[in-house]
Amino acid sequence: MTTLSPFHLAFPVHDLAAARAFWGGVMGCPEGRSSDHWVDFDLLGHQIVVHLVPGCERRDQASSPVDGHGVPVPHFGLVLGIDEWQALADRLVAAGTEFGIAPTIRFRGQPGEQATMFFRDPSGNAIEMKAFADRSKLFATS
């Protein structure tokens, strides 16, 4: 089995305080290095960096049909364990997060059955968090 390396993702935000409240508070990501223009967060061992870009709120609503839902494109996220996914879903609901696609199971009964949810950070960046009861099915086709 290959050991996964942490990924690095940098993306724009319009307000660092709002980004800290969301990524650090709601999502529970520990904060790393920072400046007046960017902040590193630890997203379950992966490095995400929010960069202050005033006026960058995402207004595009591009989507792609997947299992009866309009999935926002672009988006990013993680594949979690099912218990971690449920705990995050509960935390997001408790925080009053507005979901583009509420926590649900898609592809029910198919090889790619997965728990998924879509939401946006305060700057409008689309996020998908998903989980598989059996993570070995991540790339299953049959």
Helices and strands in order, then pairings?
Elements: E1 8-13, H1 16-26, E2 31-34, E3 38-43, E4 46-52, E5 63-66, E6 69-72, E7 76-80, H2 82-94, E8 99-106, E9 114-120, E10 126-131
Parallel strand pairs: 1-4, 7-10
Antiparallel strand pairs: 2-3, 3-4, 5-6, 8-9, 9-10
Q: What string, H for helix and E for strand, traces the elements in order?
A: EHEEEEEEHEEE
CATH C-level class of the largest domain: Alpha Beta
Kindly report the average pLDDT value: 92
Distinct helical segment count: 2
Largest sheet: 4 strands, mixed
Question: How many domains?
Answer: 2
Q: Structural class per helix/strand content?
A: alpha+beta
CATH homologous superfamily label of the largest domain: 2,3-Dihydroxybiphenyl 1,2-Dioxygenase, domain 1
Percent range for β-strand residues:
35-45%
**CATH architectural type of the largest domain:** Roll
Topology-level CATH name of the largest domain: 2,3-Dihydroxybiphenyl 1,2-Dioxygenase, domain 1
Spatial separation of the terminal alpha carbons: 21 Å
Oligomeric grouping of the chains: single chain
Shape: globular
Query: What's the Cα radius of gyration?
Result: 16 Å
Total E-strand runs: 10
Helix content: 10-25%
Low-pLDDT runs: none
InterPro entries: Glyas_Bleomycin-R_OHBP_Dase (IPR029068), Glyas_Fos-R_dOase_dom (IPR004360), VOC_core (IPR037523)
Organism: Alteraurantiacibacter buctensis
Domain VOC: 5-132
Protein name: Glyoxalase
